[in-house]
């Protein structure tokens, strides 16, 4: 019994090592994709737990490439619903390959930050577009899009040399001022690609060096595996009489 439990614990830990973390979707764009757009839907999670009803969406359109700069239109929508009674999306972010050297934006999210930190295990993101000049991409400010609102604008991504193709990956949004969910006032969301007009390749399983998104509940499973291993390794209390 002890060895069976031990083998089960080893199997669980091995399974978790294979599963690892899930990376957000990615898309590759080149000069042939000018005029193409792609849409992502976002979940909501905090401390590894998915928050029901906390959702959002973004649409990005490549409008042109000028020298070392890629230009986009964007639309962000706060699509949250019950049990969430209100929330605001204060920023959106993603990673780039090659490395970005500059960025600018207009519209609903007219402030940009490079190498910013996102909470809930996401870590550093290459570029973030936020609603307010003050505060970081992880929090602060009081603007953004509240439940049911949409906002649009443009952004430009600059690189140190001409780029023949650009990969965007690991798309995130930041939720704040959440109401209707006990104990939760802020959260993050990871994007899933739902449609693309791009002629270049897209991927839902690979990432270009972005930070993995923690799977909700994975920490709990890992804890269960560790406990199982600890119990399996204990010596039996009772021994057979000689």
List keywords for this structure.
242 residues; 2 helices; disordered C terminus; 13-stranded antiparallel sheet; disordered N terminus; two-stranded antiparallel sheet; mainly beta; 2 domains; Immunoglobulin-like; 14% helix; globular
Give a structural overview.
With 242 residues, this protein is mainly beta. The protein folds into two domains: 1-20 and 215-242, no CATH class; 24-212, Sandwich (Immunoglobulin-like), CATH 2.60.40. Helices cover 14% and strands 44% of the residues. It is built from two helices and 15 strands. The strands form two sheets. Strands 1, 2, 5, 6, 7, 8, 9, 10, 11, 12, 13, 14 and 15 form a 13-stranded antiparallel sheet that branches. A hairpin with a 2-residue loop joins strand 3 (45-46) and strand 4 (49-50). The two termini are 21 Å apart.
Please summarize what this structure is.
This protein is mainly beta and 242 residues long.
């Amino acid at each position: 019994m002890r060895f069976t439990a031990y083998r089960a614990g080893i199997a669980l830990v091995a399974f978790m090592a294979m599963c690892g973390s899930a990376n957000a979707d990615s898309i590759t764009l080149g000069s042939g994709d000018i005029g193409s757009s792609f849409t992502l839907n976002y979940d909501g999670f905090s401390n590894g737990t998915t928050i029901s009803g906390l959702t959002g969406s973004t649409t990005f359109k490549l409008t042109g490439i000028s020298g070392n700069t890629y230009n986009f239109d964007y639309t962000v929508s706060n699509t949250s619903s019950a049990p969430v009674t209100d929330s605001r999306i204060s920023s959106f972010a993603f990673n780039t390959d090659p490395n970005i050297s500059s960025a600018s934006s207009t519209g609903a999210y007219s402030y940009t930050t490079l190498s910013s930190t996102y909470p809930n295990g996401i870590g550093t993101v290459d570029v973030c577009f936020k609603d307010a000049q003050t505060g970081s991409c992880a929090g602060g400010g009081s603007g953004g899009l509240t439940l049911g609102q949409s906002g649009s604008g443009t952004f430009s991504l600059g690189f140190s040399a001409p780029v023949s193709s650009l990969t965007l990956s690991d798309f995130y949004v930041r939720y704040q001022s959440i109401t209707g969910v006990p104990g939760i006032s802020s959260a993050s969301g990871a994007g899933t690609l739902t449609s693309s007009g791009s002629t270049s390749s897209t991927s839902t399983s690979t990432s270009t060096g972005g930070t993995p998104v923690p799977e909700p509940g994975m920490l709990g499973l890992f804890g269960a595996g560790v406990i199982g291993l600890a119990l399996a390794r204990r010596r039996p209390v009772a021994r057979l009489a000689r």
